[in-house]
Write a structure and sequence with these properties.
Length: 227
Amino acid sequence: MRVAIAGAGAVGRSIAAELLENGHEVLLIDKAPTAISVERVPMAEWLLADACEITSLDEAALQRCNVVIASTGDDKVNLVVSLLAKTEYGVPRVVARVNNPKNEWLFNESWGVDVAVSTPRLMSALVEEAVSVGDLVRLLRFSHGDANLVELTLPPESALAGIRVSAVAWPEDTSLVTIIRGTRVLTPSPEETLEAGDELLFVAAQAREEQLEDLLSVRREPAAAED
């Protein structure tokens, strides 16, 4: 897979190193000469250019890229890069970094963004995820289809504890994609049984999030007292 990354700062370089380690081709683009640090990511291609200019993106052969990541520290630049990548070059997947959470509403398919990653929001979500049980935590927003990656930790008193995945009447437009149980990452097969404390990751339509949270928070009926 060929990936172009606009912004060769610490974030862009970290992403590039990870992708290269996983066997992908990576091109780093930055207009600041001081950002061109080939020795830091020697296996990447480097291009000193303004990623907001069509001529620069032509030179980068963006039409050959499977993914473009707009990772600069400027939201305006990230939006322009995303829009050009999608509309002018037909890049299948565009991921954009959101620096200011107030601008998050702009990062959608109208600007060519498939996935918006807000670092401040993600950090706060991870804090919430660490301390909340039974509450829905939104980790990531997907622009297409108005869907989010959300996490819920199954409370000990939940009526779903001990129930097979296939026996649960999940809300429409939701999909259970992963179960994290201790140090294990489980694929949720129909016969998998949910356990209290499981971290459940869903891709869910935003309109269904409240239903999903309500479903997992339903308490089991208390056991009948013996005579």
